[in-house]
Backbone:
């Protein structure tokens, strides 16, 4: 069975795992509050669900709304409360 939604190369590029802790390990600062939220959103965007499609659209619009399209915030009604909280950070 073919998946309903297939991620584009752009989605794949922004959802590739990035180890934030390793990249910041040489500093004494702690991770900003949005970094764990971003990691959770990227993890969700890798899946093939309605919620993951909404999260991927949000990430793409945040990255480049002019070329990737905007994000309709009424779409937050289609995601769980923890995901909506991560998006609102």
Residues:
């Amino acid at each position: 069975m073919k998946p309903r939604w297939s991620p584009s190369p752009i989605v794949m590029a922004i959802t590739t795992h990035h180890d934030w802790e390793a990249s910041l390990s040489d500093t004494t600062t702690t991770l900003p509050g949005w970094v764990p939220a971003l990691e959770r959103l990227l993890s969700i965007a890798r899946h093939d669900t309605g919620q993951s499609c909404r999260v991927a659209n949000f990430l793409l619009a945040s990255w480049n709304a002019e070329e990737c399209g905007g994000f309709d915030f009424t779409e937050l009604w289609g995601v769980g409360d923890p995901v909506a909280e991560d998006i609102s950070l």
User: Anything to note?
Assistant: The longest helix spans residues 50-68.
